[in-house]
Structure formats: C-alpha cells, structure tokens
C-alpha cells in the first residue's frame, strides 16, 4: 500500500458524507434498439471492425435496462447512499434535435423512482460520451451547433427529472470526449484531427455553460449543477526546466483547457501559445467565455492514476506510455515533444500505477482552484482480473486495498481543509469498458456476461460496510463484514 497511513488506524468520515457508486448508460444499459433509441457514436464505433477488443459492443452490455430493479435492490442491500448514472442522449432525443421520446424518458423516471423508494439519492450525468450519431454526421463536437443541441437536451431532461433529482452533472470527462474521440481516435467517433479536438474541447465547454443555464431555467433552485473533470495529476520526471515545461503543457491540455474557462473565464495563456501551430482559437466567439463561466454548485473529480512526463528525447521512438490506449495519433495536440513514463510499483489490469497520493494532490489542487465550492469524487476505482472461486464467490483483495488507500487519501484531504462531500466508486458493475470491450473488470459486483448473474465481490461487501458505518473496515476481512 503506497499511502503513508497505516491501515490499522480507524478512519471515520463526516456523518453527511455521501457513499455512492457510478455507471454510464452505454456501458450497462443494453437495449440499444428499444423504445425509440437510435445509434450513438459508440454504437457506430463498436460495430466498426477493429475498434474494440474482440469486436465487443454495448448492444446487451449488462442488460440494466431490463434489470434495473434488481440492480437498485442490490445497491440497497449493500447500503449505498447514492447512485450516479448517465442518461442516454439518443434514448431521450434520438436525432439530437426536437422533442423527446417519452418512452426513453420513462425508463429514467422509473429508475429514479426506484432509487428514491430504496432511500438512494440519484445523481444524473447528462453526457457520458454517447452523442447521437446524427449529430456526429453533422460535424459532432467540433461544430458549434452541437453545444446548442446539448442545451436543448439538458432542458428536456431537467424538466422531466428535476423535481426528483437534486444532483446534476453536465459532462463526464470532456477531455476524453474531445481528445480520445477526435485526436487519438481510440474512442468514438474515432477521428484523428488534433485541431478538431481543440475545437471540440471549446464546444464541450460551451455546452456545459449553455446546459447549466438550461437546467437552471427548469429546475428548483435547491438542485446542484456540476461537471466531472479528469484533470491529470501531472508530475515532471525531474525538476529540469525542460521537464517542468513538459508538465505544464500536459497540465494545460488535461485540466486548464477546461477549468480555466469554467472556473476562471479564460484559457491559460501557456495553452494558447503551445497550440498556436494548430489553431488561432478564432472559434472562441465574443461572449463565449462568460457563457462558459456559469456559477456552479460543485466540482466533481475523477481520478485513477498520476501522469509522469519529461521532455522527449529527439532520438526516442518509444511507444507513448500515457495509459490512454494504443494509437499512432496522440491525444495531446502539439505535445509531440513530451514523453510519458510509467512509474514503478503496483499496477492495475489497465497498466495504471496505484498511487493514492495523487488523489490527495488532485483534491487539494481543486480546493485551491475552486475555493468555496464543494468537491465530490465522481469516479475512482480499479480493474483487476477477477474470477469466481469454486464456491462462486469473487475475492478481489487488490481492489479492497486500492479503495482503502484512496478513501484514506480522501479523508486526509478533508482533514487538510478540503470540502469533499462524497465518493462514487467506479464502478457498481462489471461492464462494457469502451475500446477494451469486456476484457477489463472495474466492477465491485461481478457480472457473468453469459447469464447476467450478479455476484458482489469482496470489495462490494467491504465498501458497503464503509457506506453503512462511515468508517473504513479492516482490510482482509471483507466477507465477514457483510
């Protein structure tokens, strides 16, 4: 365990701390052709040969669309207090324009009602990467109009669910949507145009601002609006000026490009200078930055692993070790002079280093970046090679240790003054892991994909005990804690 604290020390969280788990629509729902839903960019991408491991798709996923009542009952049994899920845009608004399909909205109404009846707080994410294919055909996120279409969609969902859902997140990880989708091409829609990726990032920012206004126009004032960012915790390999410059460039591209305009109303000067060879940023129109900098009620943070960089050796031809998939095209526009390094030590099945200190560092960074705003950890978790034992149980001690270390980092940040109000484990269920298909298991609950049987892993039992008591259980005795 890399955290400096000893696991023997009891760790208790504030009484109001929210203990949740998270999922996303395309990864779990299935039912991709039911009740009026039309293809998203992920339907198209996953059905394109060679884009996902094993040719896997989310056509069925873990069939949550039909099994949501059982899944909510499982959350209640575990003792979770909150559930963060995303809305499938093409299930609600199939073309990305015009009126809603009520059958699609009805699914989310039923899900929310089921959660509330179980005493579980729903948290809605409006966009977790499943853009309606028709909007991509019209240009996708590099086109300004997509931001206005998102605002229309946000208003539709806010009107339908805003009376019962108090926690709202506009976008999940806009960095992935922009740069894995439009620069490296390892995510849908699979485009490889770095200048288009930068335009996409701006229009995602604009969508957040417009969507925030749209939500507030139709929802009670008590509701909270936030955004989930996956800003990299960037560490230079050395303190040399060249390595520090490399770290600044990646920090701008992963974090500053989003929290700059969202929190401060401006893009970092260093970002504009570094990307000048690709764009003059003329698509940032008068009034955009003010529109993007809407007052928000919280900042949500997703964290998995830190990023270590240096200035690239001009003679180096090593593969890019940034943890974001294999592609001949970089997700880091105008950063070919930066090299990525894999830290030593324990790694998850994703090849990501296990380092809870990075989560503490990220929280404290946003404690300073957004003073006065509550913080939530909207995603944190790990993939391991989980398999059922002969008795059908699934033991995942590595994940238990991972969660223990990272939750201790959260508690330490709270002690250091950060206003962290909740934690959402990623993920509730094993699911379709994007381009990795069904090869990587992040779930606290094991899913047999053939039978769709759900089996809580040791980590689910351990985490459920933490959620019920507000205190981290001893590591290594998860089964006895259920």
From TrEMBL:
Residues of the active site: 173 (proton donor), 379 (nucleophile)
One annotated Gene Ontology cellular component of this protein: cytosol
Region Disordered, residue ranges: 315-352
EC identifiers of the protein: 3.2.1.21
GO BP, one annotated term: cellulose catabolic process
Transmembrane segments: none
Catalysed reactions, as listed in the record: Hydrolysis of terminal, non-reducing beta-D-glucosyl residues with release of beta-D-glucose
UniProt keyword Hydrolase, yes or no: yes
Stated name of the protein: Beta-glucosidase
Any Pfam family matching the protein: Glyco_hydro_1
Family under the similarity heading: Belongs to the glycosyl hydrolase 1 family.
Signal peptide residue numbers: none
Compositionally biased region (Basic and acidic residues): 315-327
InterPro entries associated with the record: GH (IPR017853), GH_1_N_CS (IPR033132), Glyco_hydro_1 (IPR001360), Glyco_hydro_1_AS (IPR018120), Glyco_hydro_1_beta-glucosidase (IPR017736)
Keywords: Carbohydrate metabolism, Cellulose degradation, Glycosidase, Hydrolase, Polysaccharide degradation
Molecular function as annotated in GO: beta-glucosidase activity
Positions that bind substrate: 27, 128, 172, 304, 426, 433-434
């Amino acid at each position: 365990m890399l955290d400096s604290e000893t696991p023997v020390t009891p760790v208790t969280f504030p009484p109001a701390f929210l203990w949740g788990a998270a999922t996303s629509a395309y990864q779990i729902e299935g039912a991709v052709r039911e009740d009026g839903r039309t293809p998203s960019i992920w339907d198209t991408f996953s059905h394109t040969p060679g884009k996902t491991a094993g040719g896997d798709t989310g056509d069925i996923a873990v069939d949550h669309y039909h099994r949501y009542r059982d899944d909510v009952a499982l959350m209640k049994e575990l003792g979770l207090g909150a559930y963060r899920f995303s809305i499938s845009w093409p299930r609600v608004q199939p073309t990305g324009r015009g009126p809603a399909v009520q059958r699609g909205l009805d699914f989310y109404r039923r899900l929310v009602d089921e959660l509330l009846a179980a005493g579980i707080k729903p948290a809605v994410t409006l966009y977790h990467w499943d853009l309606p294919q028709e909007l991509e055909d019209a240009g996708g996120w590099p086109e300004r109009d997509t931001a206005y279409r998102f605002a229309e969609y946000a208003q539709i969902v806010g009107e339908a669910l805003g009376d019962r859902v108090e926690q709202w997140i506009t976008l999940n990880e806009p960095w992935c949507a922009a740069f894995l989708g439009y620069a490296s091409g390892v995510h849908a829609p699979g485009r490889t145009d770095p200048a288009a990726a930068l335009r996409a990032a701006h229009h995602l920012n604009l969508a957040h601002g417009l969507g925030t206004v749209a939500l507030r126009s139709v929802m009670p004032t008590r509701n909270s609006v936030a955004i989930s960012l996956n800003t990299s915790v960037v560490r230079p390999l050395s303190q040399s000026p060249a390595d520090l410059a490399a770290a600044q460039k990646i920090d701008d591209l992963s974090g500053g490009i989003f929290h700059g305009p969202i929190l401060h109303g401006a893009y970092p000067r260093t970002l504009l200078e570094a990307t000048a060879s690709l764009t003059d940023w003329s698509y940032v129109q008068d009034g955009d930055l003010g529109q993007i900098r809407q007052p928000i009620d919280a900042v949500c943070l997703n964290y998995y692993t830190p990023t270590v960089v240096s200035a690239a050796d001009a003679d180096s031809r090593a593969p890019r070790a940034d943890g974001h998939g294999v592609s001949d095209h970089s997700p880091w526009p105008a950063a070919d002079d930066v090299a990525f390094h894999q830290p030593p030590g324990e790694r998850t099945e994703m090849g990501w280093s296990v380092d809870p200190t990075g989560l503490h560092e990220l929280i404290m960074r946003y404690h300073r970046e957004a003073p006065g705003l509550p913080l939530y950890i909207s995603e944190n978790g790990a993939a391991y090679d989980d398999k059922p034992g002969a008795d059908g149980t699934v033991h995942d001690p590595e994940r238990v240790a991972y969660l223990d270390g990272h939750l201790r980092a959260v508690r330490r940040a709270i002690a250091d003054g950060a206003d962290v109000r909740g934690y959402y484990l990623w993920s509730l269920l094993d699911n379709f892991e994007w381009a990795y298909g069904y090869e990587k298991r992040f779930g606290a609950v094991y899913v047999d994909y053939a039978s769709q049987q759900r089996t809580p892993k040791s980590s689910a039992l351990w985490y459920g005990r933490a959620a019920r008591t507000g205190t981290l259980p001893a590591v290594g005795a998860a089964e006895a804690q259920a």
